[in-house]
Every structure is written in C-alpha cells, then in structure tokens.
Amino acid sequence: MNQIDSATRAEPPLLLPPPFLRWFADKGWQPRAHQLELLSRVEGGESMLLIAPTGAGKTLAGFLPSLVSLTQRGKVPPGSAFTGIHTLYISPLKALAVDIERNLMKPVGDMGLPVRIENRTGDTPASKRQRQKLNPPDILLTTPEQVALLLANGEAERFFRDLKYVVLDELHSLVTSKRGHLLSLGLARLRRLAPKMQAIGLSATVADPMDLQRWLAPQRPGENNHAGLITVTGGARPEISILSTEERVPWAGHSAAYAISDIYKAIGGQKTTLLFVNTRSQAERVFQELWTINDDNLAIALHHGSLDVGQRRKVEAAMSENRLRAVVATSTLDLGIDWGDVDMVIHVGAPKGASRLAQRIGRANHRMDEPSRAILVPANRFEVMECQAALDANYIGAQDTPPVGKGALDVLAQHVLGMACAAPFDPLALYAEITSAAPYSYLTWETFERIVDFVATGGYALRSYERYAKIRKTPEGFWRVSNPMVAQQYRLNVGTIIESPMLNVRMVKHNARGALGRGGMPLGKVEEYFIEMLSPGDTFLFSGKVLRFEGIRESECLVSQGYKLDPKVPSYNGGKFPLSTYLASQVRKMLADPSRHATLPEQVRDWLSLQKDISMLPKEDELLIETFPRGSRHYMVIYAFEGRLAHQTLGMLLTRRLDRAGLKPLGFVATDYSLAVWGLDDMGEAFKAGSPRLADLFDEDMLGDDLEAWLNESFLLKRTFRNCAVIAGLIDQRHPGKEKSGRQVTVSADLIYDVLRSHEPDHILLEATRNDASTGLLEIERLGDMLTRIKGHITHRPLDRISPLAVPVMLEIGKVPVGGEAQDFLLAEAADELFEDVVRH
Amino acid sequence: MHRIAHAISALPDNPALSARTVINGVAAVCDPLGGLYLPDLDILVVSDLHLEKGSAFARRGMMLPPYDTLATLRILDAVISRHNPKTVISLGDNFHDRVGSALMPELFRGMIETMARGREWVWINGNHDPDGTVALPGSCADELHHASLIFRHEPSLNASAGEIAGHLHPSATVRRREKYMRRACFATDGKRLIMPAFGVTTGGLDLRHQAMRGLFDHQSLVAHMLGRDRIYSVRFANLLG
C-alpha cells in the first residue's frame, strides 16, 4: 500500500471521508482504481471477490469498506447497548493475522480513525478472549478455527448480530482444503446471524474465479448467486529463465545436486535470494550442499515446517531485516507474509503447477511495477520439459489451481456438533443453512440425516449406543447436546488440521560416563513413523545438520552430532505435489511437437531424438506403452503423464489385472511422468497375441470392481481414515483432562478401521474416507479422465532393449519401498533368512 | 483386517502354520489367531480380550464402532473350534472395564454361552476387570496353578518358572528392505510366556520397551509373531528396538 498506481482514475474519490483524503494527500498517494471500485460496489450492497497480484494494495482495498463505514459510524458511546463486532477478517495463517494487525494499525493511527482492531488466535490468552466476548473490538482478525469456536459458543448470536463485513484473505489457498469447507459452513452460519453481512474475498489469480465468487455468496436452489468480481491485471511481467549449465543434467532423481555450484554463483550475484524446493528433505539436502561449497560464508538459512518454531522465527526476523543472502524454503513461505526485499527466486525442482510457480515467483520483489526475477532449476531431464512448460504457461498467464470441489463429510459432522453446542438446532433449518454454502450445495437430506445420526450415536446399524448419545432430540424436534462435557470435547478438538504423530527432536551430548545427557537444544519435529524406521547409530539430515539417532526418551527423539558424510536421506513427509493436469498436458504437447524441441537444452534434445530413433515419441493424445526385456525380467513402461499419485493407483489396479491374466507381475514403480511394471513373463508377447488386449487392460471398468476390491484390502486408506475419524469427532485427539499427544492415543485408528470395514462397510465415515482418497491420495478422478482420453489411442512398442525415455523410471526401481500389500511377503522372507525355526521340538 | 478376515475364513480342517514351543516342560502351540494351546493338558489360553471396549469409549463420548466384541468373539470361536479344548482360560482384561460384562448385549452373551458349552471356562481377573464377570458361564479367579504352570494376568518380576501371563500386549518389529513390520507376538524364553493381546482393538507394546525389562532371559527369548496365516518366530537379537 505504499506505492503510486499509474492506472488511478483522475476523478476525485468522492466516496472517501475527509480523514482518508487527507491521509492520501499527505503521503502524496492516490487511492487505486480497484480500491475505489471495491468500496463503491460493497457500499452498493454486493459481496465481492478481488483478484490481484502481490503488491497491488489488496489488503487496504479489503479493509477500506470497513474503515469508511466505521468512521461514518463513529465511536460507540460508553453506556450504549452491547455492540457486536463490525468486521471479521479471516486469514489462513496466524502469523498473517498478526502481520495484518501491524500493517493496518499504522494508517488507522495516522488518520486517527475511531476504530478498535484486535486479533484472536490460538495463542491469544484466555483473559483477552473473554474480554473480547464481553466487549468486542470493531475489527477482529482471526483464523478459520477461531471462527468455528466462536460460532459454537452460546454467545455467538449476540457477538455476530452487528456483523457487516467478512474479509477473507488468501481465499484461493483456503477454499480447496478441509479448512475451507469448515469456513464455508461458518460463513453460512454468520449469514444467518447477520443476514445483511457481505463477504469480501481477496485472492491471487485462479483458474476459475466463478468458483470463488459462488463460494462467497449464499447458494439457493433456482438462484444463481455469486459475488461481484474485480480483477487487477498488469504488474510487470516476471523475468524467468531455466538454469543454463555446463553440467550434465541427470536422468532421474530430485536432488539437483548437479546444479549446486551454479545456484551458489547465482546467490552470490544477488542481494537476497529465496530458494524454493518441493519437499522438506530436498530443502535439507540443498541447504547442506550449499554450505559445503560456501567458501564466501554467505548468510544462507533454512526454513521449513518441521523446524522448531523458535528457529523459524529467527530466520523470518533476519530475513525481514535483510540480514540474509538466501533462504532455502518449502511451501511454508508460499503465503503473503512480508519478507523484506527479495531480489530473486530460485526454484529447485520443477514447480509441478503453473499457478504455484506464479505465486512463488510473486514472492520476489513485492512491488507490482517492477519485474520479479526467477530461475528454474530442473532436477532431471523430464523436469527440463516441465520447467519449460511452466515458463510458457507463466507468460501466457495460464492458471491451474485446483477446483473448489465438494465439501467433506467429516468436516460437516464436526460442524453439526458445533452448531448443537451453540444452541439446540432445528434440523430442517440447519440443512437449509448448510446447503447454502457452495461446497455443500450438493448435500442430500438423506446424507445430512446420516451425519446427524453419526454425531449423535456413531450412526451404526447396530443401534447400541442410544443411551450414550452426544446429541439428543427434544420433544419439539430440536437437537441439543446431552451434557456440557460434549461441548468441552468439541472445543478441544475443533479444526481440520490433523498432525501425524510427531516427536520432538532434541540434540544431546554423551556425558563423561558415555550416558546421554539431558536438556539439549530442540531442533524441531519429525513424524513418528520416520523415527521408528531408525536404529540407534543411523544418521539423517535435519535442521541443516547430519544427526546421529541415539534413541527415544518419552516423546522425544534424541540425537547427537553426526560425523558421517553420507547421511541417510530423511524421508519424512513434506508437500509432495503431483504434477498438475495442465502442466502434464503441456509436457505431452511439447513431446509430440518436434518444432518445440529447439528451445530445449541440447542434452534433452539429443535424448528425445534418440528416443524417436529407437522407439517413438507419443502424440499428444496417444498413450505409448513400451515392453522390453532387461536382465532376467520383462518390463512394461506406460507413459501416462498424470502425476505420481494417479500412476500409483494405476499401477495397483494394473498389476491386479495382469495377475488375473496370468502374467505374474512382480512389482511396479511410478514417477510423475510414467509407470513401469515388471514381471518374469514377456508381457509384450502376450499383448501382441491379444491375450490380454491392451484396450481391455486399460478399460475404464478397472475403476469399478477392481478398485473396490483393492480398496477392501488396501492399507492405504487407513491414514485417510484416521484423519476423517479425528475431524469427524469419532476419535478425540485430545480428551478433557487427558491432553494426549498423538503418540499416546489409546485407540488405534487402524484397528478401528479394520473392525468397521469388516462389519459395516457402508458406514458414513468409510464413505467419507473413500471420497477423500479418490480425490486426494489416489487421484481416481484424474485416472478416470485419463482412461477416457486414451481410449482407442494406445500404441504398443515391443522393443528388444530399454528405450531412452524409459531410463528415468527404470532408475527409480529399487529406490521406492514396497507398499503395505507386500508386508506379509516380506515378513516371510525375513523370517526365512533371519531366524531359524529354533523352537521346533 | 488380516486377523478378522482370516478368522472369518478359518476352518477347523484348515491347518494354520503354528509354532511349537515348550514352557517349563509343558508343550505348547502358538496359534496365529492369538491363542496358546497346551495339547497335553487340553487347555486353550487367550488373553486381554478387552471385550466391550467400543461401548466403554462410547460411554465417555467417543462412539467407536460397537463391533469389536463381535469381531473378537468370532476369532475366539474360530480358535476354539480349531483345537476343541476341554478347558478355556482367559487371562484377564477379559472386559475393557468393570461394568463391561454386566452391560454386554445379550447377543454376545449368547455367543460365549455357546462356545463354553461342554467345556470348563476360567476367567482370570485383570486390572481392567478386577471384580470378575457377571452372568457368564465359567468361574473367576485371580490366578490358577495347574501342572507345572501358573496362569495370572500380570507377569511378576520374580516369577517362578512356568508363569503364563498377559497384560503387556507384547509386539515385535522386524526390518526388511527399509520396511518395518510390527506384529503382536507370544514372547517366551522357555521358562515363562507372555501372551499377545487377543482383542481386535488392542494395541501392542514393543518387546524392547522398558516395561518388559527383567522379565526374560534375552539369550533364549523368541518372539512368535502373528502373521496373516502363520506364526513367524524371531530371536530377540534379530528384532528391532
């Protein structure tokens, strides 16, 4: 909000009260056109969506209607009746809410506006929260979870009755997640409490703005309600390039180790560089390698979501004071916190999505009128093409943000309980309210009833829990909570962010007697399952250090300084995005069009032309399948270009079918670009003989019975189930009086899942789990679209040896651990080798 | 799923790959369904059924599926049918809480009555259900001495040889190609044995956990791990901590 906009209209902004005009004049600024348009349309009664690039003064635009309205209202005189909050600001990040408070207080103070602004997050002390309820501020800055909590309170009606505006920041990032689903339900409730409330959404560029416009407005049958739209285009075009290097670009892998010295040189040539990577383990790796060659001692820091909060805050502070030359970071920095002056963004690894790239590049140079600069560093040859596709997309402004999608049922269950905690509800009225939220407009009455039943007694066909019901129907037909403990339980478990069980990582030293000391420095948190894989003495990379695993004490993972040079690479989780559908199609196009190969580096050009000679380059809508022998095995490589998750699902289903056809597949491995299946029999010969026919093998009906059969015995769904069970309130993460960490939960979600699956496979929570998996973990919809697309376009190339295009996926074989299915097989193998049947008598 | 699914399909004439062992001179068979059969005494031992765990949680506001009792009883039925023992000993924590057996639905009570018909049944009291069972066939006891064996719920630190106990829910982990497999197990060093938990919603405690310390002679300790349809026997030294 501190720069001049050349596109400002010349006409005097009549809408603005005198203090605002004076403030702009004093600063020598002009309000921007979109700020004034937003103000006037909101004053005209519309809900609005503002889409603008970073640095366009979005925040001020979003708050202008509130500030003007509050200025016109003036201070509430002491002794007047209770006045509820006027404006609710909701951001996806706590830190953002705090940041905004600072940024907003400044102009409000300068103009001397009669406005009280406060924030409320999980960190706000109880006394302040209590005071806020009794004496609400004019503008409350908060997060979606806090909104849910406020709405589940008996005072909600009074607290929100005067609400005029809801400002939703970073809306594009909120709406596609379960947090967004919960928030959409909250918005529907706010609208009921304050029928004249208007919503103002602030968003980065998205593929389909209408999705968001509908999200902001109440949906009713037969009506086409949506918020108005203001799009701010322009801003300087980013300067993006792909790293040019003398080094050999590897076939496979994600480390981009080949480019480290080039990256280091680029950092040296700038004041401040942001290095984005896709996963936390990649961040650790890149950070370590940069420091290995950091002869100039450049201030290079590391930032990712697993690190200790204290450490992260230190890095953030150093960054905003411009004390760092570079930060290696994962998506924790994607959202709009002010990070000081960043000259350049280096993206290590392919960005996986065009919109993601645009948003990350937007981090460089927070000024709209200066170009952002970015360098893309592909980690392997396929990524070279992907980077080129993302770069092309960026120039034409293509967007591939995911659609909003249907609201999740586990979130709905949580909301229904929350509404019962607020006040007894009439099911018909609540159903009408819920279906006015865009993500839930699809919800049938029958499903809603099942959810209410689930909330009350678990919704089991065996109705044995009636006497323990959490909510009960009153004689008037209203649902109310059975006892106050239910509300307490709800408050402890609100929210949709489910952490997998984590252990603190703590650095300890051996004392003189060789025993482990206590109370060393905390380094951050790591998933429990990762630690369970380690034996004492194993080394891994974390927090930029090589650490030696010493053991687990209570809920802490103890480590010491490791000295090995080649640590085990950490495989703990961290945003592994699959390739976006849009970029995948662009890569296919590029592959099919030799005239576009000219823009690619020579190494990649040679690789593709070799592929053309030995096998072929598939056409855009063609599915190429190669079969060839190698060693004692036969391979089939499928170039589907649909991302790792969809390929994994395809691999699971395909191996079932091959097995049924008697082809005895032994395993498969999936990358973002292709899928390799191997076995002992010559699959190529079988396909040539038409037994089975490839068209049958890849028929869409694999998503019917085969999928169902696989899901029935799959271990993959268990993790999804655990999340659903916690969000839906079946399993408490925290129980009143017993604040358990994930590690100490006394019931195992896996075992619950087994019992439920085998006894009530149609249970609503299993339905919710399958819904989640089909869009998330398994990407079944995407796979379905692909199978439709390639129908009649399958080309089989039987080869006598591996093709150039097959090399990357073949290199992944052996690196990828087997899934749960093969566990018993491995157990048997281990049993046969490791131990004897010593105890036979 | 594997245990439930397997129990449903388990038939008496479908022999599973059990492991044979000897406890203080008495022959024993570790069944992959989680029961210990003593052929010379014609006794079947199970432990930590934790029946009615789902409803125990439901009373406290967590509506866990009410099917755990049914699932556990089905497996119990399968393992009883396989060995057709004269005596069944349930080694304590038979119910998840004190009121479990009194509040159990009639359907499940009937299943237990059918299983107990024509045999002796002993409910050993556990820490979850110290007051014994209500309205069920069989007798209740804190512990039982028979032949050279002692049956009790909690393993004692200075036990004389021949103790068969439960309570700790032992499990063991092996590593194979960067993959970790953790399974419930029978743990025995030939002198004593600790039973795996039988209930379908009971978790496990690793054999290397400090609660297990001092109970076994590690040199001769073997974990008989419960696999899909066989027992995998692993020496303690080859387990992962």
From TrEMBL, chain A:
PROSITE patterns according to UniProt: HELICASE_ATP_BIND_1, HELICASE_CTER
SUPFAM superfamilies to which the protein is assigned, alphabetical: P-loop containing nucleoside triphosphate hydrolases
Domain of life according to the entry: Bacteria
Classification via Gene3D superfamilies: P-loop containing nucleotide triphosphate hydrolases (3.40.50.300)
GO molecular function: hydrolase activity
Occurrences of domain Helicase ATP-binding (ranges): 39-224
Pfam families: DEAD, DEAD_assoc, Helicase_C, WHD_Lhr
Keywords: ATP-binding, DNA damage, DNA repair, DNA-binding, Helicase, Hydrolase, Isomerase, Nucleotide-binding
Residues covered by region (Disordered): 115-135
Keyword DNA-binding: yes
Record domain Helicase C-terminal: where: 259-409
Enzyme class: hydrolase
Keyword tRNA processing included in the entry's annotation: no
InterPro entries: ATP-dep_Helicase (IPR052511), DEAD/DEAH_box_helicase_dom (IPR011545), DEXH_lig_assoc (IPR026362), Helicase_ATP-bd (IPR014001), Helicase_C-like (IPR001650), Lhr-like (IPR017170), Lhr-like_DEAD/DEAH_assoc (IPR013701), Lhr_WH_dom (IPR045628)
EC number: 3.6.4.-
Family of this protein: Belongs to the Lhr helicase family. Lhr-Core subfamily.
UniProt-recorded name of the protein: ATP-dependent Lhr-like helicase
TrEMBL record, chain B:
Superkingdom assignment: Bacteria
Pfam families: Metallophos (PF00149)
Alphabetic keyword roster: Ligase
Domain Calcineurin-like phosphoesterase: 43-136
Originating organism: Rhizobium herbae
GO terms of molecular function: ligase activity
Protein name: DNA ligase-associated metallophosphoesterase
